[in-house]
Specification:
Strand content of chain A: 15-25%
Number of strands of chain A: 21
Order of helices and strands of chain B: EEEHEEHEHHHHEHEHEEHH
CATH architecture of the largest domain in chain A: 3-Layer(aba) Sandwich
Number of helices of chain B: 10
Strand content of chain B: 25-35%
Shape of chain A: globular
CATH superfamily of one domain in chain B: P-loop containing nucleotide triphosphate hydrolases
Number of helices of chain A: 13
Oligomer: heterodimer
Structural class of chain A: alpha/beta
Structural class of chain B: alpha/beta
CATH architecture of one domain in chain B: 3-Layer(aba) Sandwich
Strand order of the largest sheet of chain A: 4-3-5-6-7-8-9-14-13
CATH class of the largest domain in chain A: Alpha Beta
Chain lengths: 433, 245
């Protein structure tokens, strides 16, 4: 698998760290000089850019959180005049004010190089035909991957989001070899392929590059088997740039290689903000090292992962981050144990006879936290053999207790008795507050 | 080859460098650009040993040279061509050049000197013409060539060039700049300090921009040359435009 930029991607770590230090100092100088809100933060802390003498001194710098970016809407965080910003993207803003991303010509050039690295690691070369199934628009995913694909010289088809059938028709007719999109979309297409009984031989797919949402290894297996591809995970968030922050190497798929010459990554304890050593899971914090229009210092991504700086068998020396499955705002603490709603959802989805509607009620009795999972059962299970019903309930309870590590009560309810929720967070009722 | 890490240098009580970090890899031409007083020459002096850093590290080929005596640093292979030429006016051109090899060991001396002299004369033919003339009678551009030639006589690995075009007529400056990429072929690595950002960015691989003792930009020379900020501040373009959002 060709490494897109061997000089950087296989650089000895001591040289990489010098490069990171130089760039970190430049960013500290620039935000202090150019971005009033950062200048204010620094001054409040009695901090000056020259206090940054080593990469470790990153810890002296203040964090940036989503609200900081929201408060800067739209252009207050730009470090260059607007006329130098040649591209403007924005996040979807489903959970509040959207955050704006700005890019100078150089920023776009870097972005192209970075997504080219990710695509290359995922198997793509200039001989590939790439179908971009992200929606083209304000979100960064489509354009980000598109530019990188062009940089590589592949044939790029900017399909955008369409029905699975339309995607399949294009894949067949245009002889697509690489599919780029979200994993749920990949799964949808894989399942549509099966339903329509489209023979795999009519397709030329080899690679799938999926990102923008967490996805389980089981989903990877399914998508790989059904589409006949090698599927890799890639990561990026619009607050620091977009896709291209990190990506798996197709040969080993053992972590996502981070482009550390452009992004300085740390793992911190989500509660205390203290830096955690390599290998420990915590919140990913990203500092942009080369962004001109919108440099970001220690952005709390809310994504939980760990870092591994050891070199990969693929030859890359860039540190790897573990795949992201959970977010900090997902997480609940029940009885001192970290519990993720996604674990509950996973257990439920893998239990037969249940409807996809549930509620999780967290309460406290005296000094003990309790969890009760209420889930609708299918009419068939409810009116069928009572022993089967009891068995399902017990098995589910055992499964949940094993997965979560805390005692769980399971209550089966009739179909259509629970409220309908569109977001996972609405299903979690925490009565302890 | 050269790694400078968070160097802080003072002139008496005045802090001239506020944590400067840069590196030069073997075979590169790296430019350090910035306005007058930004700290560019101070950076070179800290590397060549004329100044000692108060904090931070300077490493050459893996060994620490920060704070070492200049003659040791020269022997390690770092040679500085000072700002303003500073040739020995009363001495002949040839003697100026020979002096540049003063620290070369006796065994190699004779053959080495002859070879190096030839190389310098090839690079700057006018020096051969004026070999016996007093250096003080040369024009500004010729003196600059002499200063560079003198530094090359010691067969340095890293050449520190301090404002080679300063005070030179454009045509002379052009001649000097045209010669620099050729140094790479001779196995030299170059760190070039220049107020003439346009010319420096044309010949450099990478560049750093300094402002008041700090590095505020770095990257491939081409990228910096295309940066509107650099263009405005150092390439004289659009100076009338107003900062706006």
């Amino acid at each position: 698998m060709p490494i897109w930029n061997p000089r950087i991607e296989t650089m000895p770590r001591v040289d990489l760290e010098q490069l990171q230090l130089e760039r970190l100092q430049v960013i500290a100088n620039r935000v202090w000089e150019r971005v009033p809100s950062y200048r204010r933060k620094f001054e409040e802390m009695g901090l000056m850019p020259e206090h940054i003498r080593s990469v470790e001194d990153l810890r002296l710098l203040p964090f940036t959180v989503k609200d900081d970016l929201r408060r800067g809407y739209p252009y207050d965080l730009f470090a260059v005049p607007l006329r130098e910003v040649v591209r403007i993207h924005a996040s979807s803003g489903t959970t509040g004010q959207p955050t704006v991303g700005g890019y100078t010509k150089n920023d776009l050039r870097h972005w192209r190089e970075l997504t080219a690295r990710v695509l290359s690691a995922g198997g793509v070369t200039k001989d590939d035909v790439i179908q971009i199934a992200f929606n083209y628009g304000l979100l960064t995913d489509a354009f980000g991957m598109h530019q990188g694909a062009e940089e590589i010289g592949a044939s790029v088809i900017p399909v955008s989001a369409r029905t699975a059938e339309q995607q399949i028709a294009i894949m067949r007719d245009f002889r697509t070899t690489a599919l780029v999109g979200t994993p749920s979309y990949g799964l949808q297409i894989a399942e549509a392929l099966e339903e329509q009984q489209v023979p795999r031989s009519s397709l030329h797919l080899r690679w799938g590059l999926f990102g923008a949402e967490p996805w389980a290894e089981t989903v990877r297996q399914t998508v790989q088997d059904k589409l006949g591809i090698s599927a890799t995970d890639n990561y990026g968030i619009c607050e620091v740039m977009g896709p291209g922050v990190s990506g798996e190497c197709e040969e080993h798929k053992c972590g996502l290689h981070i482009s550390e010459d452009h992004f300085l990554c740390e793992i911190v304890d989500p509660d205390t903000g203290e830096a955690l050593p390599p290998g420990q899971v915590g919140e990913l914090v990203i500092t942009t090292l080369t962004k001109e229009a919108l440099p970001v210092v220690r952005y709390r991504t809310g994504d939980l992962t760990s870092l591994d700086p050891a070199p990969c068998p693929c030859g890359r020396t860039l540190a790897r981050m573990a795949r992201v499955f959970h977010r900090t705002d997902d997480m609940l603490i029940v009885g001192g144990v970290k519990v993720f709603p996604s674990q509950i959802a996973a257990a439920l989805s893998e239990t037969a006879g249940l409807e996809p509607h549930y509620q999780v009620i967290i309460d406290r009795e005296g000094a003990t936290d309790t969890i009760e999972v209420q889930v609708e059962v299918s009419a068939g299970l409810l009116t069928g053999d009572v022993r089967l019903l009891m068995q399902t309930q017990n098995q589910l309870r055992q499964r949940l207790e094993t997965d979560l590590g805390v005692p769980v009560e399971v209550r089966f309810v009739e179909p259509r008795t629970l409220g309908r929720a569109s977001e996972r967070s609405q299903r979690i009722i925490d009565r302890r507050k | 080859m050269l790694v400078v890490t968070s160097v802080v240098t003072y002139y008496g009580s005045v802090q001239a460098l506020k944590g400067v970090s840069l590196h030069v890899d073997q075979g590169e031409i790296v430019a350090l650009i910035g306005a007058n007083g930004a700290g560019k020459t101070t950076t070179l002096h800290t590397i060549s040993g004329l100044l000692a850093p108060r904090r931070g590290r300077v490493e050459f080929e893996g060994r620490s040279i920060g704070g070492r005596p200049p003659e040791r640093i020269v022997r390690a292979g770092v040679s500085q061509v000072p700002e303003g030429r500073q040739v020995f006016g009363a001495l002949a051109v040839r003697d100026n050049l020979l002096l540049g090899a003063y620290q070369v060991r006796w065994r190699e001396k004779r053959t080495h000197l002859h070879q190096q002299l030839e190389r310098v004369y090839e690079m700057f033919p006018v020096l051969r013409e004026r070999a016996r003339q007093a250096a003080g009678t040369l024009s500004g551009g010729e003196q600059q060539m002499l200063a560079i030639g003198r530094a090359l006589m010691g067969r340095p690995k890293l050449l520190l060039l301090d404002e080679p075009s300063l005070g030179l007529a454009p045509r002379m400056a052009r001649t000097i700049f045209d010669a620099i990429p050729g140094f790479r072929q001779a196995g030299l690595t170059v760190l070039l300090v220049e107020q003439n950002a346009r010319a420096a960015l044309q010949i450099a691989d990478r560049a750093y921009v300094m402002e008041t003792g700090r590095i505020v930009m770095e990257g491939p020379a081409q990228e910096l040359a295309n940066q509107p900020e650099v263009q405005r501040a150092y390439l004289g373009r659009g100076y009338r435009e107003v900062w706006e959002r």
